[in-house]
Structures are given as structure tokens and as C-alpha cells.
User: Fold these one by one.
Assistant:
Number 1:
Amino acid sequence: MAQTAVKRVEIEATSRLKELMRAYFLDLDAASKDHNRRVAWCTSVGPCEILSAFGFAVYFPENHGALLGAKKISHEIIPRAAGLGYCAEACSYMNSDIGCDLTDRSPLKQLYGIDGPPRPDLLVYSTNQCRDVQEWFQYFGQRHDAMVTGIRPPRHLGDVTREQVADVRAQLEQLIERIEIRYEQKLDRRLLREAVERSSRVSQLWGRVLETARHRPSPMTFWDMLIHMAPVILMRGSLEAIEYYETLRAEMEQRIADGVAAVPDERWRIYWEGMPVWPRLRELSEKFFDLRAAVVASTYCNSWAFEPYTGGDPLDWMARTSLEIFINRDEVRKERFLASVFDRFGVDGAIFHNARTCPNNTNSRYGMPERLRRRLDLPVLVLDGDLSDIRFFSTAQSMTNIEAFVEQLEGRK
Ligand code: SF4
């Protein structure tokens, strides 16, 4: 009998999550129509605490890129961006968001009854993840005649040095100054500190939610985490996100106490490296469920579990956090991190997603899977695909490869 015939236990907090997301997008929509409020667009690991301390309603377009992928719209609208000269192999979040702008096909309309993404007054990027975000924001800055600015931290770091932190801290100060001049408004440093304290708290709670998956059987999987990570990105400086992750964590701990498994009769524990395949989440989650394989940890969901803020200069914490994120580290640090997570979560194998349009968050291109396979004697599979553009992902081929991979695990048992 296929496992999918076995009933999944739904996560109860999901209904609260839906309420939070609705309130968040309705507020953004209201802010974009209110002459007394302003909207800032920010990259997902950008300096959003500064923006909320200035009073902006903060919107994260990468979330919209993921939504366009999950709703299977991206591949239809990316050609419109290509028509403007954006390479089809550049970031498919960026291309689909531009395509959405040109075709007016945002799923936010149907989901929340709003006009689509909020019109930006200001766009703030950090290139700690990639250059694409800068180009993406330049497009929308021109489109809406809005100021585009940001920070450019040093990339691909080994150990993060004090000099590098000081460099990014200085860039953050310059960013604050530019916003102060543009809007003739002084930043309230007390509000910034409070926003950083809440961000750190949300991030810590999210990290603890992820840690519950170390338990055998795991109370949640990567597929659940991808849904429940929204508040740590979109609302990470908010009290609502703190309350939400306290609730979710309590539910996961109760599952552990009650012996509730996300994958009944969990037989295999897998690590997912790289970006999700948003248009194929359902098919992939069902496949792993049927194979009794729990994907218990991932680089992607872990990317918003930062080191805690323990007081002192909030800009220093923001600078360090933006430098230390996994995507911004060199191969040696990444490999070391992955080996330690494989061990802590007791995984039987790892899957690396080679995302065609995101070389920045793909780690299968320079020998890492093979090095880890040899060093740890751990089965590894590389799946070719993309985060959002379905044209780069063969579902049939991928499912065959995943089945063969799990058979390989079986053979080693
Ligand atoms: S990290 Fe990858 S997916 Fe994210 S914005 Fe950059 S290129 Fe796109």
C-alpha cells in the first residue's frame, strides 16, 4: 500500500499561519495606498530591521518569486522578462517577478483580494546572497521611480573578521544616512535595537523548531518547514512571529511526546541541500512520504536561524549576521557545516539540488557532494532542476533517481 494512503497528521498551527499571512499582506496593501505610510522592499537576508525602525511596511519580493513558482506560473511569464533581455538562466525568482509585473498575474490577487505586490517607495538590497537581487531591484526602482540602495558585503568568506564586520557596519551607517536625508527623518536607535531584539528572538525560536526534527521519528519535514518558515522571513521583527513560533515549537514538542511522526514508520532520514523546487513540492513530498523517507534538515530553511543578539551594538549584530550566512561562505566552511548537520540530524543520505538559475545557492558544482560522499561514506544524489522554472526540472527523471537513491540506502542497511 502506498504511504500516501496513510493519513498525514496536519500541523494545527497552520490555521494561525494563514491568518498571519493574510494580515501581513492586507497591511502591506493598505500601506501602499495610504499617503501617510511608506513601503520598502527588502532582500530576504537584508537589513529589514533598519527599515521597520524607520516605520516602513517591509515587503520581500523573493517570497513572491517562490509563490509564482509554487503556483506554477513562473515558466509562463519568464519569457516576458527574456523579451526585455533578461537571460532565461538568470534568477528565475527575478525573471518571474519581472514577468509578473509585465503580465499582471500575481497570485496575491486571488489569495488575498489585493492588487498584487505593494508599490515600493524604497528598495533596499544586500548582495550577501547574490548580485541578481540588485539588478532585480533596479528594474522595479525604475519602474516605480523609487530610490534603490543597499549594501555590498564581501563574499565567499572563510572566517569572518572584525575588519569585515566593521566594513559592513559602516555600509549600514551610510544606508541609514541616505534614508534619513531622503525622507528628512532621523532613525530612532531605540526602535532599531528593539527590532533587532525581536528579530533575534524570532530567529532563535525558528532554529529551535528546526531542531525538533533531530528526534526519531521527526515530527516535521522539510516540506512542512518550507510552509512554516514564512514568518521568519516576512515578519521577523514582529511580536506576532515570536508568538507564532512559540506555538509551533510547543506543537512539535507535543508531537515528540506523543510519538507522532511526520512520516509514519520513518525508515530513512535525508538532508536537502540547495533551493526547493517550488512547483513540485507536492509531488516530491508525496514521493518521499511513500518511500518512508523524512527529509529532516536543509540548508535553505536553516538560512534564517542566525546567531543570537546578546546586547551591545545592534548594527554590529546585523553586520555579522549578514556576513556569516551559509550562502556567503567559502567551500571549506560550507562543507564543514554540512558534515556537522548530517551528523547532528543522523541522516542516511543527502540530496543536492543543482538549481539551474541559482548558482549562488547551489553547492554541487565544485565537487562538494563527491568529497562529502567519500569522506563520510554517505550516499549522495545530485538532482538537476530549478527553484521556480519548471522547464529545467524533469519530474519523471527526478522521481526515478530518488527511487534508485532510496534503493541504494536500502542496500546498505
Ligand atoms: S540567491 Fe538565488 S534564488 Fe535567491 S535571489 Fe539570488 S539568484 Fe535568486
Note: The pocket of iron/sulfur cluster is lined by residues 62, 91, 93-94, 129-130, 132-133, 358, 360-361, 387 (CB under 6 Å).
Number 2:
Amino acid sequence: MDADRNQPDAEAYKVFDEDRVQARIVAALDGVETLASYSRCCDACLERRVWVRKGGVKVELVQYYHRAVGCQIVTGLVKTFVALEWLKPGEGEDTAALRLLSKIPAQYGSRFFDIPLLDALYAQAPVFRLAAALGWDLVVSLKQNQRELYQSAIRLFARRAADGSATETRAGKHYQIQVWDTEGLPFSADYPQPVRVVRSEETLTQNHYRRGQLEPETSEHEWLWVTTLDRQTFPAMVVRRLGHDRWKLENNGWNGLTQNWGLKHGFLHACRHRPYHRDGVRVPVPNRGLPAVVLILLLAFTLTAAFVHCHSKLFRLRPSSVIEVAQQLRRSVSKLPLHIRDPDSPAESSI
Ligand SMILES: [Zn+2]
């Protein structure tokens, strides 16, 4: 990546080492949905009405589901999930996220991480107040839902040239980036403290196969973030990179858990997630299994990542994917002789 003199890039500053960004630990919050069903539900299920096609006719049904917000450390090789908060019936993801963030200081201490990366959904005054009280800096996606701040920033940036530009090539993708950066915009009427807004305009070029031919394709993207990070230590390009790290997390976190760990498998539907009827009234079963199973999955996910990145010689000698290491482990376990003694047979002298 090369950058102009006014706006050196993240690589030039060497701010992204393995464990920290400018000596700060970064975490990200993101939501995930599990166990959607039209028939089974428990006392903690969320509900929504959806239209589905049944026998060629569109009908409206009540769908039951669960949704949670997870907090995962982004910096470091082992992307540990440190907290998970389930949405309660009738509440929004922003409420659960605020509850999760409020619990962190008691569980880990407020300096367990320094910078939460948040979705636009969480760009709300209570989140900024909590972060200010705990000494966290925030990087939050800025979209139209924070209308006044969004429009003030867009109007301001439209009147002036970019504050910096850079190019970046990563994983077969070539980016041309222009960034705008301003401080001192009031966040909202109920939290008028000044915040900083960074805008990134990106032209992405990547090759795609079209009719058997590899052809370059170009697309335009715009991103905005509101942040409390200071400009000297965290230039606009570093804020941009942090903002994009939240998306990378989705692949390393919930997406990986969904694709490779059976996070959304309906195993709980097969047991005690079906409501029963008493005197004609539907009585939902208590929700006991789901939080426990997901917690065990998150622990296994973190321990496996720790084993692979910190212990596995195979991974160190020949970097491969975590899945490859898991397959090797499975193969080696399946070759082990069975030393399980039949309880009715006499004990073996040596095992
Ligand atoms: Zn349920």
C-alpha cells in the first residue's frame, strides 16, 4: 500500500501488530440469529410475522427465533468471544448490546479492551455515554439512522477535496481510497458532545470470470464512521481499517461458527423446544439448552483457535487453515486403538 504524504497509511505507521492497534486492544460487537422455527418455541423465543408460500398460496405465519449479540476480541491471533447477550422477547439488539457492554467492567474490568467497533445500530447516545464513563474509545458505522450527524458530515465533505488518498491491494482486490476527516460535529440532540467523522470513498477493482474470460470489474463504495479516537494517534486511514475489521470479524466469528461449528443446527428443536398445551392454552417450554450449548461452542471455538495458533507444530511449520488442522486431528484420533474397558470384564493390568 502506498499513500500520499498528508495521509500515511496504517502499514506505514506499523500500527497494526498482531495483538494491538497503537497499543490498544480492539473488540467488536455483532448480532447473530439461531433456531428459527414456525412450530417450536420456548419462553425466551422472539417472534415475528413472515409471509411464506404454502401450496402456491402466500400465508402469514408467526416465526419463533433467538438472537444474540456477541463481543469478540479482534486483535490477536485468537479471536476470543468474551461475552454473549441474548435478546429478550420484545427488545431490540441495541438494548441487548448496551446490557452486554454494561456487564463487561464487572466481568473483566473496563480495560480488558480499549476500543469497541460497533454497527450503525448502536450509534446511540447511551452507548457513547457508557463508553465515555468507562474510558473506551468508539468506532461506529455511521448511516442514515443517525440522520442529522450523517447529513452534516456529508454536506461538509461535499464542499472540499479529500484529506488523503491511498491505494491498497489485498487478496486479489485493488482499492483506490480517498478519505475525509473532520472533528467537532455534535453527535445528537441528546448527546451534543463533539465527535469525529471519517468518510472513505473506495473504488474496488477485482477480476471475475465472464464467459470463461478473466475480466476486471470495478465498483464504488462509500463508508462513514463516527469515532472518539484522536486524529494524531489514529489517522483517517487507521480508522478506516478498524471500521473494516468489523466486517472481517463476521467471517472469523459468526460465519465461521455457522459454517464449521453447527451454530445454527436445530439440535434443540429435536428435543425440548416444542411447546405443549394445557387446557387448550399453549405453554412454552423453559429455555435452558440454547445458552448452554452456544456457550460451550464459543469455548470450544476459542480453545481450538488457541491450540492451532499457539501450540500446533503442524500449523507453524506449514501454515494451513484451522479446518485442515481439525481434519488432521480427527484422522489421528480415529487411528488410536480403543482402550475402553468393558465394565464387566476384569481390569487390565496395564493400559
Ligand atoms: Zn426458543
Note: The helical segments are 10-13, 93-108, 125-134, 147-158, 236-260, 289-310, 313-317, 322-335.
